[in-house]
Design goal:
By secondary structure, the chain is an all-alpha fold. The protein is built from 19 helices and no strands. Helices cover 75% and strands 0% of the residues. The chain is globular.
C-alpha cells in the first residue's frame, strides 16, 4: 500500500484539477463557439494584409475570439497566411489565440489568482509588440516568400454571411453547438494529458527538483535579476519538455508557482505553449523547416524579453504577484461555488449536444447531412497517450476507493 498511496494521491490531485476547472472550460468554449459562429471572420481577414497597428490589433482581437486549441491556432494562422495576411500578423494571431482567449484567462484566475490574470493580459499585448519588433529586425523575406508559395489553397473557405440574420436563425444557434463540439474534439486529449501529468508532477516530483532547475534555493544569495533571467530562459524549455499545449499547462504553472519559481519563470512557462515539439513540427509541415525554426526562435526570444519586462515593471511598481496557493487546497473536493458552476456547466453541455445534433441532421448545400467531419486519425500517438492517461486515472480512482474501504 505504500506504493499505491502516492499513486492514488496523484490521481486525486489530477481529478481535483479537472473538478476545479471543468465549468471554466465549458462556459469558455460556449462563449468561444458563439463568437466563432456569429463573427464574420472572412471580413476581418481582408484587413490583415499589412504589418501596421490596425492589422496587428485586428489579429489580436481575432485570435482572442478563436479557439484556444494550439493545433487549431496553427491551422487558422496558416489559413490567414495563405489568404494574404502579413507574417507579423500571423505570429500575433498565434500568440493571441493561445494566450488571450477567455477560457485560458478563467483557468489562470482559478489556479493562480487575479494578479496573474492581469499580468497575462498585459503581457500578452507586450508579447505581440515585442515579437513584431524582433521580426521587423530579423525579417527573412526570402523564407517567408518561399513559405507563401508552399501553402496550398484552402478548400474550406468560409462563407460570407450577415451576422444579424444568423444570430436570429435556428441554424446559427445549431452552428454554435457544432463549433462547441469541434473545439472539444480538438482539445480533449491535450486537456486530459496535461491535467493528468500535472497531478502526478504535483505529488511525485520533489521540491528539490524545481529548486535545482529554477535556482529557488539561491534566492537571497544570487541577485534577483540573475535568477529572473535564468527562470525566463529555462521556462520555455521546461514547457517544451512537457509536450503539453496551452490549456494543459496552467495546472503545471500552479505547481511551479507553489514551489517558489519566480514570476518571470511562471510567465515564461505560460507563454511557451506554442514551442512544444509537436507544434514546431506542424509549422514545419506548413511553412518548411527553416521558417518553422525561425518562428520558434522568434517566440523564444519574445517570451524571454516579455517575461523579463513584466518582472522588472511589476517589481518597480511593487505589484509582483506572489500567489502561494497550495495545490492540495486548490484541488480539494468540497461543496462550494465550484459545485454549482459545474452543475450549470452540465446543463450547458446537454444544450450544446442537442444543438450539435440538430446541426448535423440538417442537409448541406449538396443535400447531405453535416455529420461527415474528419477529426484526425483514430489512434494517433497523442490519442494513445490520452487513452493511457484515462486508464491511469481510472486505476488510481479504484485504488483510492479500495483504500477507503479497508
Amino acid at each position: 500500500m505504500t506504493i499505491l498511496q502516492p499513486y492514488g494521491e496523484a490521481v486525486m490531485t489530477s481529478l481535483g484539477f479537472f473538478w476545479k476547472s471543468a465549468w471554466a472550460f465549458v462556459f469558455g468554449y460556449a462563449i468561444s463557439a458563439m463568437i466563432q459562429a456569429f463573427v464574420p471572420q472572412k471580413a476581418l481577414t481582408r484587413q490583415l494584409g499589412g504589418p501596421g497597428l490596425q492589422s496587428l490589433s485586428l489579429a489580436t482581437v481575432f485570435g482572442a475570439a478563436s479557439s484556444s486549441c494550439s493545433f487549431a491556432a496553427l491551422a487558422a494562422a496558416r489559413a490567414l497566411f495563405m489568404k494574404g495576411a502579413h507574417f507579423v500578423v500571423v505570429v500575433a494571431f498565434m500568440f493571441a489565440s493561445t494566450n488571450l482567449v477567455i477560457e485560458l484567462g478563467v483557468l489562470i484566475l482559478i489556479f493562480l489568482g487575479w494578479q496573474f490574470l492581469a499580468a497575462e493580459l498585459v503581457g500578452g499585448i507586450v508579447l505581440i509588440a515585442v515579437s513584431r519588433m524582433v521580426i521587423k529586425i530579423t525579417y527573412p523575406r526570402q523564407w517567408v516568400e518561399a513559405a507563401r508559395e508552399r501553402v496550398s489553397a484552402d478548400d474550406a473557405d468560409e462563407e460570407e454571411f450577415d451576422w444579424r440574420r444568423r444570430l436570429r436563425s435556428r441554424k446559427g444557434w445549431y452552428l454554435v453547438g457544432q463549433k462547441f463540439g469541434d473545439d472539444w474534439l480538438m482539445v480533449w486529449e491535450e486537456i486530459l494529458i496535461g491535467f493528468t501529468v500535472a497531478g502526478f508532477v504535483a505529488v511525485l516530483v520533489p521540491p528539490a527538483f524545481w529548486a535545482t532547475i529554477f535556482l529557488t534555493a539561491y534566492q537571497g544569495v544570487l541577485p534577483d535579476w540573475l535568477i529572473a533571467l535564468e527562470n525566463a530562459v529555462v521556462a520555455p524549455f521546461v514547457a517544451a519538455a512537457t509536450f503539453i499545449g496551452s490549456m494543459g499547462n496552467i495546472p503545471l504553472a500552479t505547481v511551479l508557482n507553489a514551489n517558489g519559481v519566480m514570476f518571470a519563470g511562471i510567465m515564461g512557462f505560460i507563454y511557451s505553449d506554442l514551442m512544444v515539439p509537436p507544434l514546431v513540427q506542424v509549422n514545419a509541415k506548413y511553412y518548411g523547416p527553416r521558417l518553422a525554426l525561425y518562428i520558434a526562435g522568434i517566440m523564444f526570444v519574445s517570451i524571454v524579453i516579455t517575461a523579463l519586462l513584466l518582472h522588472t515593471a511589476f517589481s518597480l511598481l511593487n505589484i509582483v504577484p506572489e500567489s502561494r496557493r497550495v495545490v492540495s487546497e486548490i484541488v480539494r473536493f468540497k461543496l462550494d461555488y465550484t459545485f454549482w458552476m459545474n452543475l450549470g456547466a452540465v446543463i450547458v453541455v446537454f444544450v450544446m449536444i442537442g444543438l450539435r445534433r440538430r446541426f448535423q441532421a440538417m442537409p448541406d448545400d449538396d443535400g447531405h447531412d453535416h455529420d461527415h467531419h474528419d477529426h484526425g486519425r483514430a489512434w494517433s500517438p497523442k490519442r494513445v497517450i490520452a487513452a493511457l492517461a484515462a486508464l491511469v486515472l481510472a486505476g488510481g480512482t479504484a485504488v483510492q476507493l479500495m483504500r477507503l474501504t479497508l
